[in-house]
């Protein structure tokens, strides 16, 4: 496993880390025993960083992490998120009372005394600009409840604003072959500011595995069914903001990237890891097989300059215009 510095925090995290949305819920059927086995397999391979949130399965993902990492609290770093258990537009959600309660509840579920990275979970820009929530986070940091804090953002504008906020040490950003915009301005400026980048949804909700067809369907409790067009939350969180059929068609045009790299999923994450401003990629998983497959991205064949240029042109000419929602 290769490790990268998380901004200027002093934390070195595995370049392939894992998100836990899928094992918490909203991704269809899951198996807790298999989820635990997947977490254990990742740690055996050297993964030392996991991302979760208090709303993933109503805190269930945090509980699974507590179970899997028991006794390894000093070696395995956990990032969790807050605010979406409340009304993200209500200022009261970001009050000291509310944030402290969110934090304490996550600490209990994680069975930890301190959260390594505590992130605001995709709040509106106005909340960030108000600044109240950052004051609360600084207080929790001083008390030793959290080690560092950051923000999971939906747009480049939000990310750029966060870079101006003292104490922000990490940004979590949707970044994949279908969502290349953050690499243009946000990533270089984050690097200069000493802020780490966590690349989420690296496979565009599975589109970049190449396994879907236009007739593919998803379970009713899977966000790829109930949020395909942004019905419940930001449309960019599902299929990178692309209409499903269009995303499937575009993924077929990318099938060539798998050659010599195992498969499309590994190739897609290999492309992300080749950006020097990315700290780590955080794919999801629901079983050991998916964990092992994702781990293979580190050893996949690098892309040539010509291939990188081809992928950039593909995004600009065939993808960009079809992405829905602000980003």
Automatic annotation (TrEMBL):
Ranges for domain NADP-dependent oxidoreductase? 15-315
Looking up Gene3D superfamilies in the UniProt record yields: NADP-dependent oxidoreductase domain (3.20.20.100)
Q: Name one GO molecular function term.
A: oxidoreductase activity
Pfam family example for this protein? Aldo_ket_red
The record's section on InterPro entries has: AKR, AKR2_Oxidoreductase, NAD(P)_OxRdtase_dom_sf, NADP_OxRdtase_dom
- The protein depicted here goes by the name Aldo/keto reductase
Its taxonomic placement starts with: Bacteria, Bacillati, Bacillota, Bacilli, Bacillales
């Amino acid at each position: 496993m290769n490790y990268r510095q998380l901004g200027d925090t002093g934390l070195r995290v595995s370049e392939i880390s894992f998100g836990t949305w899928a094992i918490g819920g909203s991704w269809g059927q899951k198996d807790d025993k298999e989820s635990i086995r997947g977490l254990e397999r990742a740690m055996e391979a050297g993964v030392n960083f996991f991302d979760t949130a208090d709303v993933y399965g109503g805190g269930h993902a945090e509980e699974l992490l507590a179970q899997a990492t028991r006794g390894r609290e000093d070696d395995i770093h956990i990032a969790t998120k807050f605010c979406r258990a409340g009304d993200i537009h209500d200022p009261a959600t970001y009050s000291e009372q509310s944030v402290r309660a969110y934090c304490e509840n996550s600490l209990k579920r994680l069975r930890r005394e301190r959260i390594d990275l505590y992130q605001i979970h995709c709040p509106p820009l106005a909340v960030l600009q108000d600044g109240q929530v950052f004051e609360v986070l600084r207080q929790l940091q001083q008390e030793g409840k959290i080690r560092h804090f950051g923000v999971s953002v939906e747009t480049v504008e939000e990310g750029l604003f966060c870079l101006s906020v003292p104490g922000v040490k990490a940004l979590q950003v949707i970044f994949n072959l279908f969502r290349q915009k953050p690499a243009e301005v946000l990533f270089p400026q984050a690097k200069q500011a000493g802020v780490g980048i966590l690349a989420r949804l690296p496979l565009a909700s599975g589109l970049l595995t190449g396994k879907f067809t236009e007739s593919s369907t998803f379970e009713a409790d899977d966000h790829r069914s109930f949020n395909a067009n942004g019905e419940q939350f930001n449309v960019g969180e599902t299929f990178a903001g692309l209409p499903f059929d269009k995303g499937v068609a575009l993924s077929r045009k990318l099938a060539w990237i798998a050659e010599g790299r195992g498969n499309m999923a590994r190739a897609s994450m290999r492309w992300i890891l080749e950006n020097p401003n990315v700290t780590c990629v955080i794919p999801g998983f629901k079983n050991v097989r998916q964990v092992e497959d994702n781990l293979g991205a580190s050893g996949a064949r690098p892309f040539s300059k010509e291939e990188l240029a081809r992928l950039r042109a593909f995004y600009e000419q065939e993808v960009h215009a079809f992405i829905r929602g602000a980003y």
